[in-house]
Structures are given as C-alpha cells and as structure tokens.
Amino acid sequence: MNRDAMLPLADTALLQAEGLGLVLGGRRVVDQVSLALAPGQWAALVGPNGAGKSSLLSLLAGLKLPDAGRVLLDGRPLADWPARARGQRLAWLSQQGEADGELAGADVVGLGRLPHQGLFGAPSAADAAAVQAAMAETASAAFAQRRLSALSGGERQRVLLARALAVQAPVLLLDEPTTHLDAPHQRALVRSLVQRARAGCAVLAVLHDLNLALAADRLLVLHQGRLVADGPPADAAVRQRLVAVFDNAFSVEGLATAGGTRWVAVPAL
User: Fold this and answer.
1) Confidence (pTM)
2) Residue 199 φ/ψ, nearest 5 degrees
3) Cα–Cα distance, 80 to 74 (Å, whole number)
4) 61 pLDDT exceeds 80?
5) For residues 207 and 183, what is the distance between their CA atoms, to the nearest angstrom?
6) 10 Å Cβ neighbour count for 75?
7) Contact 261/92 with Cβ under 8 angstroms?
C-alpha cells in the first residue's frame, strides 16, 4: 500500500495530526496517530469497540489535550487559535449529542452560529439563512418550534446535525452521526457529506455502519489506538486490514453498479 499516494500533502491539509497520543485511566487510547484531512474529501473513521475513535476525534476537535503530538488547523497549532476563530473553522458533533432539551429546534440549530455572532451578538440575516438551510438539508425544518425533549431520537439527531452544519465550517468532525437515523435519512446524510466535501470541506465521520463507511472517499482504520490503515476502500490492503481488525467477522465484496464498483461488508455467519 503506497501511503504517499493516499495521504494528502501537509501543505494542502485543513486539519493535521502529528504523533497524537492520549492516556485515559492508565491506558493509552490514542497511540502515535498522524493524519491529514484535505479539502474536497470525506473520510470515515472505523474500528472495533474501544479502538479510540471518539478519543481521537475529541483530540482533533480540541476538546481533549494530547499527551503527545499536536493538531494543526490551517497549518497553525490548534491550541494557538482563539476559541471563536477556531469555532468558525471547525464544526463538531459529539456522540452524545448534548443540548438543552427545553430549547426549540431552531434555537438549537442557531447555537451553531455563535462563533460568527459572538456571545452577545444578535443573529443576522446571514445567520437566519444558515439555520434555515441547515434544517432543510437535514429534513428537520418541521421541528423548528418543537422542544428537543419532545422529539424522537432520530428527529433530535437531525436537529443536532443541522446545528453542526449551520456553522458552515470548512472542517467537519462527526462522531457517529447516523445514530438513530433510519435508512432514508442515513442516505441523505451521506449525500450531504459528499456535497460538502465536493464544495471544498474536509469531513471526518466516525461510523459504525461499515457499508456507509465503505462509501467514503477514504477509510481510516483504528485498532488499539493506532491507525493501522488509511486509504480508499478500493485499496485491497485497506480492505484486508479492515476485515482483520474485526476478527474476520465479515468479508468485503465488490458489487457492480451502474456507477462503478461498490464495496459492501458481508457478515461471515
């Protein structure tokens, strides 16, 4: 596997990790991870339970401080960015999807505009347009006036996705964004990620659904805190490593479609 061919050049990366390490509870959960996320590309981060996926994403978002290594945003150490400027450049969706359950849907999505408004700024016409566009993109406009606590799991997830999209940041980090989403909304989300990447964003999503992950431009396979494969799903070595870290619980097969070969995970029953 030619790593030089599959990794974006550092000088084109929007977000870059260099030798990241993190110890939690006496265990090294992220171990010497280096990667670069380029504009125009969406990547899926996959791995077994406990591989360190959420911890790595938290480091990339600046929510946790690494014990080793560093993260660069636009070539500048993430720690050197003022919080507001960083919030404009990097959007994040957590696995837990935390938000005040008493807020109306549109108000939750509006929180994504805070890095642009400032804490005491009033929403502008541009902010309102960004909120409306994000809710339309996630099919959550019908929940604009409904409290988050009154929504189903899937409806709530779509509102929280809209909040992340409303930031309109060039870097988008999503931790299990398909949680609670049914098949049509999973498909819509993937199409949205593709569209944003093609518009010049760098997108990284932790995904448990391997068939969705295999549709990504790039697959990052994490195992015991280490990045053990990084490349397009079409790369046979990447597919082999993916199967191996999941203890051969499935095979990855090519499916001929009108748009070309699609890779799918087939359980080994």
Assistant:
1) 0.91
2) -85, 0
3) 11
4) yes
5) 14
6) 11
7) no
How many other β-carbons are positioned within 10 Å of the β-carbon of residue 217? 18
Structure tokens at 106: 């549109």
Whether 219 contacts 231, CB under 8 Å: yes
| Tokens read off for 263 | 């890779």
Six token digits for residue 216: 């990504």
Number of Cβ atoms within 10 Å of the Cβ of 12: 13
First to last CA, the chain: 29
Here the contacts of 30-34 (C-beta below 8 Å, separation 24 or greater) are 30/55, 30/56, 30/59, 30/66, 30/225, 31/224, 31/225, 31/226, 32/68, 32/69, 32/226, 33/69, 33/222, 33/225, 33/226, 33/227, 34/69, 34/227
d(CA 102, CA 240): 46
Q: Which two tokens stand for residue 253?
A: 């097969």
For the chain, how many helices (H) and strands (E)?
Answer: 10, 12
Spatial CA neighbour of 212 closest among 5, 56, 42, 40: 42
Do 22 and 55 contact (CB within 8 A), yes or no? yes
User: pLDDT tens-digit profile of 206-243?
Assistant: 999 999 999 999 999 999 999 999 999 999 999 999 99
pLDDT given for residue 100 in this prediction: 56
As a whole number of angstroms, the distance between CA 198 and CA 3 comes to 23
Contacts 24+ apart (CB under 8 A), 155-159: 156/97, 156/180, 157/97, 157/181, 158/185, 159/99, 159/105, 159/108, 159/109, 159/135
- Token pair listed for 198: 């093609």
pLDDT of 112 strictly over 80: yes
